[in-house]
Design brief:
about 110 residues, alpha+beta, Alpha-Beta Plaits, 5-stranded antiparallel beta sheet, globular
């Protein structure tokens, strides 16, 4: 297994959609969960504060871009994203091509 690479990302959720967003994530579609695992993502969490979502995960594969392309090509994941995206507001400061804005890690302790 590769040494995990940690990722933190942030996104806003529309305040009027928070409860719906939480309900979907309380029962994530099995196909979506499988693709996340198949794409070498472990220890995945999403946290909510006010209308901000913070996601944390560890990537244990060898080619992050290829695994993210595999995830994006999956029909079940595409359907999930079609449900999720209208509930979300990406940050205006995100990089070109990002939906979830990648965060800079400034501290870590094992």
């Amino acid at each position: 297994m590769a040494t995990p690479q940690r990722y933190g990302m942030v996104l806003k959720v529309k305040p009027e959609r928070i409860e719906e967003y939480k309900a979907y994530h309380a029962e994530v579609w099995p196909g979506v969960a499988k693709v996340i695992t198949d794409c070498n993502i472990t220890n995945y969490s999403i946290y909510l504060k006010d209308d901000y979502l913070f996601s944390y995960f560890e990537y244990v594969g060898d080619d992050f871009e290829a695994d993210m392309a595999k995830m994006a090509a999956d029909p079940v994941t595409q359907e999930w994203w079609d449900v999720m995206m209208p509930m979300q507001d990406p940050l205006p400061t995100r990089k070109e091509g990002e939906w979830w804005a990648e965060m800079e890690e400034v501290f870590h302790q094992d």
